[in-house]
Structure formats: structure tokens, C-alpha cells
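Action item from last meeting closed. Structure (200 res):
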């Protein structure tokens, strides 16, 4: 437990520390925010967390975030159904959507290959991607995984697996810098990356 704090606050700090990217100092700041905030604000925050947990799940088709069986993208009949953009997580969908450069569908892997961490093809929804890519309506699969070691490994694996199919496989160009996450790229960089995508 965090030393010097009342037990109940120490437990809150430990809870915040379980969140990705949150260290002890950040967790302590968040705990102090909760302590100083209006009770109504804290109650609202707790309600939002509960509502997200109860009401948000993953789209049965693409694994994007959704409050129903199909996400807003998959249920939109105006989307170009001949293209599927593959991203690691829902944040990647949000980042690409902000560019306004893409009107196709998505496939969210919910991770990236990482043998060191025990994450293999079965853990990233590869079989679902292959099934979707085999649909005659799909003409192109655009790989938009992050330009990290794991993202690059995943992109190579996807291109190898889908290379056996008749679908065109492309990768975002290096407009997204090496080591960068797609979700943090600015709109202009992502737009250029989409325009300059190339065969894998």
C-alpha cells in the first residue's frame, strides 16, 4: 500500500496504478483530484465508468467499440465495403476517422503480435480477418498497425497470410514515423500516409 495515506485512499491509488501508463505519482494526483472534487462530479465519474463497463462492448464484425451488435461504421451502408483498414485497437479507428480520408470498413485486432509477451495470431483475431478478406466484395486490406516492433511484426505476418488470397494488401506509408503509434499521429501525417500507401 502507498505509505502515509489512509487505507481507503491507498487502495484508490493502487487501483489507478493498474491503469495502463499510470505510475504512482499520476495515481496519487488522480486520487487527490477525487478527494478535492465536488461529490456530484465524483458520482458522475463513477456512473460513467459503470455505464461504459455495462454498455460498451466490441462489434461482432470488426471488434470496434460499440453499444450494439454492430458498431456505427459496420452498420453504415454508405461505407465502402471493398476496403478493410486493419488497426491494433479502437483508438486507431478514431485516429483514421479524424482524417476524413477513409470511408471503408475496419478490422480491429485488439492487440499486436508479441512473442515475448506470449501474444500470438490466435490472440489478435487473425482468423476473423482472413474470413473477412476472403469475401469477394473485399478488394483491398490496408494495414495500419503501429510503426513499432510489434506493429511491424504484425504487419509482416498479415501480409504473409493474406498474400495467399486474391485480395490486394497495402501498408500505410512511412508518413507515420518509425516507433510511432497511429492513434497519436496528427491528421495531416495520417492523410499523407493513406494517400501514399503501397503494396506490401
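Sequence:
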Amino acid at each position: 500500500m502507498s505509505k502515509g495515506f489512509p487505507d481507503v485512499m491507498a487502495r484508490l491509488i493502487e487501483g489507478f496504478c493498474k491503469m495502463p501508463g499510470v505510475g504512482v505519482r499520476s495515481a496519487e494526483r488522480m486520487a487527490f483530484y477525487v478527494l478535492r472534487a465536488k461529490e456530484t462530479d465524483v458520482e458522475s465519474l463513477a456512473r460513467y465508468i459503470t455505464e461504459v463497463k455495462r454498455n460498451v462492448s466490441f462489434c461482432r464484425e470488426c471488434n470496434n467499440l460499440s453499444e450494439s451488435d454492430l458498431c456505427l461504421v459496420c452498420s453504415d451502408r454508405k461505407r465502402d465495403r471493398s476496403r478493410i483498414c486493419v488497426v491494433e485497437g479502437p483508438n486507431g479507428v478514431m485516429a483514421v476517422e479524424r482524417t476524413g480520408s477513409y470511408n471503408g470498413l475496419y478490422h480491429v485486432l485488439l492487440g499486436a503480435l508479441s512473442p515475448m509477451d506470449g501474444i500470438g495470431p490466435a490472440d489478435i483475431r487473425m482468423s476473423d480477418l482472413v474470413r473477412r478478406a476472403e469475401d469477394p466484395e473485399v478488394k483491398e486490406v490496408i494495414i495500419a498497425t503501429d510503426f513499432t516492433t510489434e506493429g511491424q511484426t504484425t504487419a509482416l505476418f498479415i501480409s504473409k497470410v493474406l498474400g495467399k488470397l486474391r485480395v490486394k494488401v497495402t501498408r500505410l506509408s512511412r508518413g507515420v514515423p518509425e516507433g510511432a503509434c497511429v492513434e497519436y499521429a496528427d491528421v495531416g501525417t495520417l492523410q499523407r500516409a493513406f494517400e501514399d500507401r503501397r503494396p506490401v
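Note appended to the action item: The chain has a mean pLDDT of 90.
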